[in-house]
Design a protein that fits this description.
The chain is 62% helix and 0% strand. It is mostly helical.
Length: 131
């Protein structure tokens, strides 16, 4: 999984930064970063605010009148949005289905307590500003 790759990369590269990205910076990236943040104890409010930053970036792009790519009938302005309620609902769904993000959901995807401990250890070795 992505979480295992991040953990192993941080362990191997002496806690150097890891770049996680996708097309919009909110879907795969947002979920993976949310899981990492959750594991190290970041609050839901902070996770949601961090996720929502992608929304602000897209609005700035639109204000600058940069070209917006269209994919068939999909409105990229809507698709690119990262409203806070999306992450709030995602966190709520994980808790409803699995009892918790950690350990519930993470155990179900094979990121067990040993992996979580390794990630916390390597992430907390370096100064944290905005996880």
């Amino acid at each position: 999984t992505g979480l295992k790759a991040i953990t192993e990369s941080l362990e191997t590269n002496n806690s150097r930064p890891v770049i996680v990205h996708c097309v919009q910076g909110k879907d795969r990236t947002g979920l993976l970063v949310m899981l990492c943040q959750s594991i190290v104890g970041v609050s839901d409010d902070d996770i949601t605010s961090c996720y929502h930053r992608s929304d602000s970036a897209m609005k700035k792009r639109n204000a600058a009148k940069l070209p917006v790519q269209t994919w068939g009938k999909l409105d990229r302005n809507v698709f690119a949005a990262a409203p806070k309620d999306v992450m709030t609902d995602t966190l709520a769904m994980l808790r409803e289905r699995y009892g918790a993000v950690s350990p519930g959901y993470l155990d179900s995807i094979g990121f067990d307590a040993t992996w979580r401990q390794r990630l916390v250890q390597v992430m907390t070795l370096q100064p944290r500003s905005n996880l």
